[in-house]
Each structure stands twice: as structure tokens, then as C-alpha cells.
Design goal:
Number of strands: 7
Bound molecules: S-adenosylmethionine
CATH architecture of the largest domain: 3-Layer(aba) Sandwich
Largest sheet: 7 strands, mixed
Number of helices: 12
Oligomer: single chain
CATH topology of the largest domain: Rossmann fold
CATH superfamily of the largest domain: Vaccinia Virus protein VP39
Length: about 290
């Protein structure tokens, strides 16, 4: 038996390799992670609801994901994502709002949309009339959705995002001209959803991430959904509730996992319940529903 065979095929060889595996195989990964943590601790002010850019590959996968769940062409989704990435007016508004907010000590100046690029492209491609987002926090997602709705309105497809949060001092990022496309509902989300009376085109859960609470939100909004509605969750990396709800609605569930660029955070994701093989375009869905 040679040395290679000794390490590979014997119990003693396996035991001898343990320190080498730890130091040479796993060790470099841990060091890279510690390096990112050290860099983040001095360059970022955030300590929760981490924001980050996606890796280039992950961003392209997000284009494919949104194309799949909306049934819309890949090139159109790519165009909408690039539209947000290159919107300097919107970016400047967010930076200004951060600078003048008392939250400037716990927020980074640079807006990093991450998976919210996908939310934006989905709203642009499907032209919803009513979007509901639970969980506002700084309002990055709300502002991104409102920016998409503003562009839709400019093209003749008006829409509103209703965003709920339990904290009244949320949403410091939202300002005109985007604010007009948004209504903030302060209070417990489930209570707000139970009172909501309008048909919901896109519902996005991003509030209390306890799976039982997520489920309670889905049940509270269920009566407001219609056959073409899309249901999204920002909690599907740790909860199967949207997958379960998709089954209840007779829809397909698909999950996209974020891959943050140069960040120690493992990333969040987008779960979507949708009708596979169908193009979601709400103006047409509404017309056929009334015919
Ligand atoms: C993850 S953050 C939302 C992030 C936001 N959607 C974004 O794009 O950055 C979760 C928010 O949910 C709110 N929240 C927690 N429990 C809630 C509840 N029961 N009802 C409404 N909002 C709640 C928190 O105050 C917090 O602002």
C-alpha cells in the first residue's frame, strides 16, 4: 500500500488527515469569512436587515428567476433590472434621505438593492394595480416598488403599494415623487391585512419572520387574492410556509437564493407562488376577469 492509498482507504489514514483537512481545506474559507466580517464591522453601519449587492452571476440568475415566475421574456426583465441599476435620480433621493435622517448612524449611504432588483423588475413587467408589502423598516423595498409603480404610471398603468409596519418611525427612505405611489399602514400586519378590502395583485411578506406569523398573514390576505395574483415571501430561506400556501392555492412554488457580493451575511432570498407556464400581466388579467 502506498501513502496515497493509506490516507484514502484506511481508518488510521483518515484520522491522521483530520488536522490537515481542518487547516488546509476548511481553514481558508473561515479566514475569508472573518476577513469579510472585519471589513464590514468598520465600513458598514448596519447591524440588521443587511443590504448588499448580488454577485454578478447571482444577479443574472435573478433575471432568469423573475422571467420564470412572471412568464415574461428574459430580455425584458434584464431591461427593467438595468433600469433600476442606472436610475441615478432615484439613487440620489435615497442617499439624500439617508443623510438627513436620524437613522444615518445605523444605515449606509450607498443603496444596495440586492434581491429587491427582482421585486422591481417583477412590478415593471406585470404592471400591478395593487401591491401589498408587509414590513417596511427603512423603506428600501417600499421605495423600490414605488419607483417601479411610478414608471408604470408614466406609461399609463397606475398602481399603488400598501406597506405595513408595526413601528411608526419606519420608512425614512421614502420621499416624493415616489411617496405618492405608496400608502403606509401602521399597526400589526395581520390586523391591517384583515381590514384590507381591495383585490391584491402582488403580495409580499417581509415583516415578522416567525413562520406562524407568516402563515397568519397569508390567511389574512387569501380572500383578497385572485387567480393571477403573485405571492412572494422574504422568509422562504428559513420557512416552508409559502411553499405550503402555494399548494393550498394550487400554484407552483419556486425559490431564489441571494448570493451577497463581499459580505459575510449568507443572504436572503425570494420565494414565489405563481402559475407555471402562464404570463402574468395584470392589465390583461383584469380585462379578462371583467369580460
Ligand atoms: C425585515 S424588515 C422589512 C424590510 C423591508 N421590507 C426592506 O425591503 O428592507 C421587517 C419589518 O417588519 C416589521 N414588523 C415586525 N413585526 C411586525 C408586525 N407584527 N406587523 C407589522 N410589521 C412588523 C419590523 O418593524 C421591521 O421594520
Amino acid at each position: 500500500m502506498n501513502l496515497r492509498e493509506f490516507f484514502k482507504y484506511t481508518a488510521v489514514g483518515r484520522a491522521v488527515l483530520i488536522p490537515a483537512r481542518l487547516l488546509k481545506v476548511a481553514g481558508p474559507h473561515a479566514l475569508r469569512q472573518i476577513g469579510k466580517m472585519l471589513q464590514w464591522s468598520v465600513t458598514s453601519k448596519e447591524y440588521y436587515n443587511h443590504t448588499y449587492h448580488l454577485t454578478d452571476l447571482n444577479r443574472d440568475y435573478l433575471v432568469s428567476y423573475i422571467a420564470a415566475v412572471s412568464g415574461q421574456p428574459l430580455l425584458l426583465i434584464e431591461k427593467y433590472m438595468a433600469e433600476l441599476e442606472t436610475d441615478t435620480t432615484f439613487r440620489s433621493t435615497l442617499e439624500h434621505r439617508t443623510l438627513v435622517s436620524r437613522d444615518r448612524h445605523n444605515c449606509d449611504l450607498e443603496p444596495r438593492y440586492g434581491r429587491r432588483l427582482g421585486w422591481y423588475a417583477l412590478v415593471r413587467a406585470t404592471k400591478p394595480k395593487i401591491v401589498v408589502e408587509t414590513g417596511v423598516d427603512r423603506g428600501l423595498g417600499t421605495a423600490v416598488i414605488a419607483a417601479a409603480l411610478k414608471r408604470n404610471a408614466d406609461e399609463g398603468f397606475p398602481g399603488l403599494v400598501y406597506a405595513t409596519d408595526i413601528l411608526s418611525d419606519c420608512v425614512h427612505l421614502l420621499a416624493e415623487p415616489y411617496k405618492s405611489f405608496c400608502k403606509i399602514l401602521i399597526g400589526d400586519s395581520v390586523a391591517s391585512l384583515k381590514q384590507f378590502q381591495q383585490p391584491v395583485d402582488i403580495f409580499l411578506h417581509d415583516s415578522n419572520h416567525d413562520p406562524e406569523y407568516e402563515w397568519a398573514e397569508f390567511l389574512a390576505i387569501e380572500q383578497r387574492l385572485h387567480p393571477a395574483s403573485l405571492v412572494l415571501s422574504d422568509n422562504s430561506q428559513q420557512s416552508s410556509k409559502l411553499r405550503e400556501f402555494a399548494g393550498r392555492l394550487g400554484k407552483t412554488f419556486l425559490y431564489f437564493q441571494d448570493q451577497p457580493k463581499n459580505h459575510w451575511w449568507p443572504g436572503d432570498g425570494i420565494g414565489t407562488a405563481f402559475t407555471a407556464g402562464q404570463t402574468t400581466y395584470f392589465p390583461v388579467a383584469k380585462e379578462s376577469a371583467t369580460n
